[in-house]
Amino acid sequence: MSLGLPFSKETFSSSDDLEPATRLLPASSRTPQHSLARPTEDIQGFLKKDLCVDRLNYIHQYLWLAGRPMPPKPLNYQLATSRQIVVDQRIDMHLVWEHSQRLHIKPLPRYLLDADFWASHLMTCEGSCCADAQRDRAVSDSTTKCTKDVYKCALGFLCSYIALIQFECDLAIALDCNLLPKDMTWEQWLQFVHQLLDNGVSNPSNINPRYLYGELRLSQLNKIYAFRYGRVLRGYQFTYQTYGELARDYLTPVTAATIYVALVLTAMQVGLATSHLSSNISFQNASRGFTIFSILGPLIGIALVGIIGIFQFSINLFETRRFTQKQFHLFKQRRTENEAP
To answer: What burial letters (b/e) apply to 222-246, b meaning 16+ CB within 10 Å?
Structure first.
């Protein structure tokens, strides 16, 4: 392939030639093969990835353990309760909060505020995501299950924002946190919300069941995935960025337990120094057993943390190696295709 300019001289001079969908979608998106592409190449596939909450739908019957079936609290309440709003484009982390009081919120995409985009892409079936449905069964109209799922996810996502932005101060917070387009006004938001409510967007039958719940607690989601699917270490979302964080989090309860054991041992020593308890056989046996436990318990706890760390490191090393081999195989295929005459 001959070398050439990566972009034209007119790139930054004018943007009038952009297509309507291009103006509304992100600049780039990631394919299932982890390569970068234009979202307009497969809009339906992009919408499915950007809006569908399959991982939460898999555990819907257990979501009551992670949150309450009620709309999320408005943004002003979130700040009043010392929660930090974190902008997160991952739809499966939308309205998920961590023990550190960080609340993940996905910004409202521009394309969900455009009626023409809804009519063209959210209410019709096209692209690769619906190919299986069209191939496996006859479709009586243009709205297949795939499109209905994306449509309900989009409505549910809008419904969550209706609850988050109830007051004018909520709109100011959303604009300050880059959750809404900067040109959004309170009058526009009022009209938008009133039309959504009049059209039944808050009806449970019209939205994805995930949005029957508001905020979800990440620690509980991790426990649900650990017990339901056996993902003991990673859970729903792996929260550790370094092995030091993992060790610190696991060693904290071991440290607290060690301090409690030290207090109990001190109390037992005082008890053995008294005439009444020093001659009590049961208390002496309990003291002897607890002494042995106080020696072995912390050592066993530290050893378990070390085993968990080594196991996690081994899994990450294996997965990284396998992913690297797979990716470089794809790179080689693309290189061969580009070099072919």
So the answer is: bbbbeeeeeeeebbbbebeeeeeeb
